[in-house]
Amino acid sequence: MLQANLLSLFWEGFVVQGWEAPDEQSLIVTLAACGVGVCSGCGERVGAVHDTTWRRVRERDLLGRRVGLRVPVRRVKCPSCGVHVERVAWLAGQRALTRGLIAWIEILVHLLPIKQVAALVGVHWHTVKAIDKARLRRDVPVPDYSQVRRLIMDEFALFKGHRYATVVICAATQAVLWIGEGRSRQAIRPFFKALGSACAQIEAVAMDMNSAFDLEVRAHCPRAEIVYDLFHVIAKYGRDVIDRVRVDQANALRDQRPARRVIKRSRWLLRNPENLTDEQAVRLDELLAANAPLATVHVLKAQLKELWFAASAEIAQLGSTPLARTHPSNALLTATAIPTTSS
After folding, report:
1. How far is CA 154 from CA 31, 46, 99, 334, 336, in A?
2. Mean pLDDT over residues 123-137, rounded?
3. Are strands 204-207 and 150-159 parallel, antiparallel or unpaired?
4. pTM value?
5. Is residue 14 a contact partner of residue 8, using CB atoms and an 8 Å limit?
6. Lower CB count within 10 Å: N or C terminus of the chain?
7. How confident is the model at residue 7 (pLDDT cuts 50, 70, 90)?
8. Are 163 and 157 within 8 A, CB to CB?
9. Average pLDDT in the 171-192 region?
10. Residue 102: is its pLDDT beyond 70?
11. Percentage of residues of the chain with pLDDT beyond 90
12. Based on the domain organization, do 321 and 266 belong to the same domain?
């Protein structure tokens, strides 16, 4: 049996008048006001009541049940402000949720996706989304562009069907500076307009090989070095260099069907060695031992990865360029894979 005096501890200024359980999953609690009201305009305590309306609000779950409250909200006759709705500390303005439930949702969105939070709490997805956006506006500070020197730009999928958004991050602090829907030049231009005069102080921008990002950065940040990320450069090298050499080698063996079949089916063997099984690693070693051009581009791929771990551009050039010059694939490597800069 629920104790009314215990439930009264949850809602300041009100006592429990009654409660009912329509089913095993829900609980409806009817409250009654006690004491004088507080004017929402000036904060003074006012005893004169103009009228009373009943509101239905959601509270946090209690004892495994969805809790709804029937709350009598008074309009008081304030001598200073006139007729005003009384201030109820645990009500969130005109929202049909208590402050306690809103605070609980704000905690949950740190741990779970919005869809799961909505299902767990029993409120609409858009309500949870609005609460999370209000929390972000309240808690996340406005970015200080004056301290930004290096940026990271990336795109991510919003929904299935090739809808994307772009995020811009400060490389030094990992703080999110801007998010916008789309990945075209026009879509990301508002960020550079917001950056304003700080565009001139940007030293480097890391990005994937999206030409829209590249062109827009060059247009607004003339001093910025363009740095392509490792994953996309290696992926492009795999498509434009390794696959091209593999196809050419297969075509050169038209009269040797068994050997041609082995090379044509070797695409997935030429990926990262750490992703291969023991059997695939053995097959790769045999393939590279039998085909010098494929062995060359495979070794160059490993050398190309090392560029991102060099302490400076000079060290990268000294460590990689001599090896690249000894291979016939140097022209392809230089033209398609090595990152370019705006300098």
Report:
1. 52, 56, 36, 24, 21
2. 94
3. parallel
4. 0.61
5. yes
6. N
7. low
8. yes
9. 92
10. yes
11. 41
12. yes
**Pairing of β 65-78 and β 82-85:** antiparallel
Q: Would you give the DSSP letter of residue 233?
A: H
For the chain, the C-alpha Rg in angstroms (whole number) is 32
Task: Give a yes or no: residue 342 inside a domain.
Answer: no
Q: Are 183 and 165 in contact (CB under 8 A)?
A: yes
163's CB contacts (< 8 A; 6+ apart) are 157, 181
For residue 54, what are the domain limits?
Answer: 1-90
**Percent composition of the chain: helix, strand, coil (DSSP 3-state, to 5):** 45, 25, 25
How many beta carbons lie within 10 A of that of residue 47, not counting itself?
9
In-domain check, residue 286: yes
Same domain for 48 and 82, yes or no, is yes
In one-letter notation, the amino acid at residue 58 is R
44-65 pLDDT tens trace: 888 888 999 999 999 999 888 9
List pLDDT tens digits, range 110-128: 999 999 999 999 999 999 9
Instruction: State the average pLDDT over residues 136-144.
Output: 87
- 248 and 218 inside one domain: no
- 183: domain CATH number is 3.30.420.10
What length does the chain have? 343
Cα–Cα separations (whole angstroms), residue 93 to 10, 86, 88, 134: 18, 11, 8, 14
Q: Which residues contact 270 (CB under 8 A, 6 or more apart)?
A: 238, 242, 246, 284, 294, 298
Whole-angstrom distance, CA of residue 192 vs CA of residue 222: 12
